[in-house]
Amino acid sequence: MAVSQSAALLDLLKIDVPIIQAPMAGTSSPAMAAAVANAGGLGSVGVGATNAAGARTMIAAIRERTNRSFNVNVFCHQPATPNAKVDAAWLERLRPEFERLGAEPPAALTEIYKSFVEDDDMLALLLETRPRVVSFHFGVPSPDRIRALRDAGIILLGSATNLAEARAVAAAGAHAVVAQGYEAGGHRGVFDAAVPDDRLSTMALTQLLTRNLDVPVIAAGGIMDGAGIAAVMRLGAAAAQLGTAFVTTDESLADAGYRAAMFSDSANHTVMTPVISGRPARCLANRFTAFGAGVDFADIPSYPLTYDAGKALNAAGKAAAEPGYGAQWAGQGAPLARSMSATALMATLIAELNAAA
């Protein structure tokens, strides 16, 4: 069953190997996505942190480099709910961190990202440019948006962290579900960050979903090499999605501090924290995660309001030569990261997968 599901998914996505490069907003680049696509996998870019104009530029840049399939990922979070009291208290809580860097916190928090659930310009762009694949994170868009994308011939993927979310993704009309294990780096795909997280591992979640869904399952979280890809496919996954493995490639947008941290002891101590952005996300252990230890989730402003302050703090840190306030997203497999081009990494992963098969 897993073999047939994998073959069907590869045909659907129009790719040659069951390797998907995760759409890491702010870290993946058009050059990375194109390199992965040209190597036979599914390259991806995340446009949740930009607008339609920015997404258009990214899509064009990929198409300048490849004519293969690629994935455009959008965020489907609920729009932020400002709370003047919580927002002001959060900025005051951050004030000592800013002052340590010789800076001042923002005067107020703004909603820096627009969710795809209400972004008509992004929908229009995707319908116009028609990337082969569009994927969702933090939930699913409305039925009319799903219908429009499917009618345009676009293949849809949606991430899930438990069976209920996965069933919702499949029922909404996604062609495949990304099973995001708790090991994964970056933002948890939980639909509601205020609800207790089951924290299912990639292995457990993959098996749970493959036994209960009729659509292909893509395993994600802690997968860093071909052996890991082979392992999740033996559990029934039709493909594997890797993100942290690509953070240290030449085409990554990770800055020097981020890259250095990936090859430091911090990689051995990743932390799930909501304090950087307002949503739980796995980050390398750094000054920001240390600040967040013990903070009550109820005291943190809505996503992405919190991220407005987080980005300002990171900018102040970089200006003061302190990289420890960055959103250095990484999964639990971070110590296994390798430094090479995305093309070389794909060749390595494919060789390792073939050896492990």
Write the layout of secondary structure elements.
Elements: H1 2-13, E1 19-21, H2 30-38, E2 43-46, H3 52-65, E3 70-75, H4 84-100, H5 120-129, E4 133-137, H6 143-151, E5 155-160, H7 163-172, E6 176-180, E7 186-187, H8 202-210, E8 217-220, H9 226-234, E9 239-242, H10 244-247, H11 256-262, E10 271-273, E11 281-283, H12 287-292, H13 305-319, H14 342-356
Parallel strand pairs: 1-9, 2-3, 3-4, 4-5, 5-6, 6-8, 8-9
Antiparallel strand pairs: 7-11, 10-11
Structure description:
The chain is of the alpha/beta class and 357 residues long. It contains 14 helices and eleven strands. The chain has helices at residues 2-13, 30-38, 52-65, 84-100, 120-129, 143-151, 163-172, 202-210, 226-234, 244-247, 256-262, 287-292, 305-319, 342-356; strands spanning 19-21, 43-46, 70-75, 133-137, 155-160, 176-180, 186-187, 217-220, 239-242, 271-273, 281-283. Helix 9 (226-234) links the parallel strand 8 and strand 9. Helix 2 runs parallel beside helix 3 (52-65) and helix 4 (84-100) packs parallel to helix 13 (305-319). The longest helix is centred in the N-terminal third of the chain and has 17 residues, at 84-100.
